[in-house]
Design the sequence.
């Protein structure tokens, strides 16, 4: 049996008006839709060979007839060119031009996400006539006519969006538009390709590119069959108040993705650490229709992923090294602060009584810190030394002599303030060999080691004020335990409270 050849069918749009409406609402954010008209102005400057010219975004959100306009001072468009735009949807003349962003010729339909009407007002070079192409949401036709009332004085194009949605007016404030354009167009602005002004009422703000912070990494560009992949990466210390991001930049210096960690392959350290800023530039990358993601094609995207993965170890080592350096500096700073705090606390407590004495510490051997009876200081101890000694930084614990016979005949010693304690203060350091405990005291070195892997430490590590309070609590705990080895639990608790009340009076206040 002879098989019939397959029939080839030409696809046609059955409901053109519906297709126009859906195509124009493919944007996740109204700012993305507004950005399409900024892109058209930027592309015009590139095609005309103009550099450093301004693009003006005008917001009139109040009043009876709110409008948004995007204006350029490029070559402008003749009536024939405006007709071509209306008749050439999905057939962009800019497709394949790496200098420009437009490729699908549907950007002009983006007005439908913002409002009901769009007027493209333009005056071509060499002409004194201004023409306007009028489009309306969901309509498959447009009107072209001579504009007489608001004729342009110079060549260029103004896109006027009107009959705006209430939600759009709330979202497109001057501040939000400036911040958005700074993030999306920072590379092109930094190169000086063009400038952008956002005007609302009497307020005009120039969109300036963000200045990179941190240490610049020396990451060379990687050549590929689809062009160079360039890296401008900066590493900074962790900052809980600000999360730094690496942008992915495509052609025409336009940001495709604000944060590389939004791409599944890079949703991990170091890219999501908040320590890395900058951009990865690859002109071969393409955007999805909504301008919010990288198009995962079979050519450029895998090359991009491989190139970024190749530099990932260098970036990770840099972030880890910097984080360790910052942690060490913070530890030194906190240790010095704690020494000052405990110096004041122990001096204050010494004026009351022996600061480490518990209620059961009045007799030798029951706990508490005691001084030896006053003597000439030369009486040898049982081990042959000439008196009790303690390692540097640790309060001395004089040896208690055993009494012959009945303990009641032993010489009575009083618990007294230890005036030296204001200088014999411990330091704090991360525990090189942490166990399960939050902290431990090492008398030989006079250091309170804290467990920087403990879940309580991890809760407060990014809040320096909270971390200082936590470490102060650990030092107070170790002081009380060390100096009251035989006290009952309730007595330890009382002594701990007494210590902490005074410690927290001297801690720096949160700003």
Sequence:
């Amino acid at each position: 049996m002879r098989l019939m050849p397959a029939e080839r069918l030409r696809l046609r749009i059955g409901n053109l008006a519906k297709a126009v409406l859906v195509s124009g609402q493919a944007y996740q954010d109204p700012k993305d839709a507004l950005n399409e008209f900024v892109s058209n102005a930027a592309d015009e400057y590139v095609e005309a060979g103009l550099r450093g010219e301004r693009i003006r975004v005008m917001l009139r959100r109040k009043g009876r007839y709110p409008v948004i306009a995007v204006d350029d001072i490029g070559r402008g468009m003749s009536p024939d060119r405006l007709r071509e735009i209306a008749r050439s949807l999905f057939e962009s003349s800019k497709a394949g031009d790496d200098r420009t962003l437009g490729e699908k010729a549907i950007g002009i339909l983006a007005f439908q996400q913002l409002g009901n009407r769009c007027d493209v007002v333009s005056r071509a070079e060499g002409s004194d006539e201004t023409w306007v192409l009028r489009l309306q949401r969901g309509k498959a036709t447009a009107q072209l006519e001579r504009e007489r009332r608001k004729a342009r004085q110079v060549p260029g194009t103004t896109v006027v969006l009107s009959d705006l949605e209430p939600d759009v007016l709330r979202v497109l404030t001057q501040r939000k538009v400036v911040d958005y354009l700074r993030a999306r167009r920072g590379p092109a602005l930094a190169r000086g390709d063009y400038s952008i002004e956002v005007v609302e009422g009497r307020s005009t703000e120039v969109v300036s590119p963000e200045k990179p912070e941190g240490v610049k990494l020396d990451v060379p560009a990687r050549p590929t069959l689809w062009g160079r992949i360039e890296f401008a990466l900066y590493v900074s210390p962790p900052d809980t108040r600000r999360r730094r991001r690496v942008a992915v930049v495509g052609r025409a210096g336009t940001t495709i993705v604000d944060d590389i960690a939004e791409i599944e392959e890079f949703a991990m350290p170091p890219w999501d650490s908040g320590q890395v800023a900058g951009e990865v530039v690859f002109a071969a990358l393409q955007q999805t229709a909504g301008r919010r993601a990288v198009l995962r094609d079979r050519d450029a995207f895998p090359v991009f992923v491989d190139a970024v993965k190749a530099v990932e170890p260098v970036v990770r080592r840099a972030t880890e090294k910097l984080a360790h350096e910052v942690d060490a500096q913070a530890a030194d700073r906190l240790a010095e602060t704690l020494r000052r705090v405990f110096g004041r606390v122990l001096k204050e407590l010494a004026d009351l009584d022996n600061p480490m004495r518990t209620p059961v510490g009045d007799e030798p051997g029951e706990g508490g810190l005691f001084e030896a009876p006053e003597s000439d200081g030369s009486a040898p101890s049982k081990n042959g030394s000439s008196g009790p000694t303690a390692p540097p930084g640790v309060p001395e614990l004089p040896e208690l002599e055993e009494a012959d016979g009945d303990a009641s005949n032993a010489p009575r010693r009083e618990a007294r303030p230890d005036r030296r304690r204001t200088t014999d203060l411990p330091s704090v350091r991360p525990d090189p060999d942490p166990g399960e405990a939050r902290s431990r005291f090492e008398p030989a070195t006079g250091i309170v080691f804290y467990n920087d892997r403990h879940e309580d430490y991890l809760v407060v590590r990014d809040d320096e004020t909270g971390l200082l309070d936590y470490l102060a609590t650990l030092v107070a705990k170790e002081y009380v335990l060390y100096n009251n080895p035989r006290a009952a639990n309730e007595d330890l608790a009382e002594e701990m409270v007494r210590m902490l009340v005074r410690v927290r009076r001297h801690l720096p206040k949160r700003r």
